[in-house]
Amino acid sequence: MLLPLYHIRITSVLVAISITFNSGLIYIILNFTGREVGNYKYIMLSFALFNVFYSLVHISLLPAIHIHERSFLVFVTRFDWLPLNIGRILTGFYCSMFAQSLFFLAVHFAYRYLHIARPGLLDRIRCVWCLPLLILLYLLVALHYGLTCLYNFGPSESKDALFDAEILHDYGVSIRDVPYIAALARNNVSSHLVLQVADVVGLFNVAAVINVTFGVIIFCGIKTFTAINRIQMRQRMKHIHKQLLNALLLQILIILIYPHFILTS
């Protein structure tokens, strides 16, 4: 199973940039972060470590993302000697990492909002159970998204028929030998549109995760921005808060733009 050489090179360059940048960020966080940042230091550190892990997973699995009209198909191109079911688990794991990255960003924005606009509320929710609950929520989001992709977007005869010719042409392999997951809401069978119930339910599930996390990001981002401009604080502190908010906005743009660079077709 071969991917275009340009795709492998672009992916390798992007992964190298990500690992280098986040490794440098980890070094800066550990050695040069001031007191003004407080516990936010550990949130930044966890996200930087996650990004390094995400990049390593990406280059290790080298996923292919194939678009067909309003449907999409994802599969890992490495470890093709493994059984198909194991390959699909790896594909589902890779897809779940997108939701995990959104969750980390939502936590980032929520903490910035509480720290700047609602410090009293932040003090009240700081307790011994806060971190375990946050970890539990993270695991639930990751499992929910990954299992939805794995089971609701699993293979079917209709998907095999729809994608087979394109996958054979673009990757030189039969769709039946690919550990893919694919979302197909409707299928045209004998001139009749047939609703794919499992896929529709799966789309609602992943849309719920994406919409909730983006809702938290947008709400907290706007509230944080207005609070920075409204609340009286030292100019240096205001500058730090604005820089941190700008960094978060940049990370959002990277998450939105990055998939367009790794589309295989």
TrEMBL record:
Signal peptide from the UniProt entry: none
GO biological process: olfactory behavior
InterPro entries associated with the record: 7TM_GPCR_serpentine_rcpt_Str
Transmembrane intervals: 6-30, 42-66, 86-107, 128-147, 200-222, 243-263
Domain of life: Eukaryota
Molecular function via GO: G protein-coupled olfactory receptor activity
This protein's UniProt keywords: Membrane, Receptor, Transmembrane, Transmembrane helix
GO CC, alphabetical: plasma membrane
Pfam name, any one: 7TM_GPCR_Str
Keyword Glycosyltransferase found: no
Keyword Transmembrane set for record: yes
Protein name: 7TM chemoreceptor
Organism: Ancylostoma ceylanicum
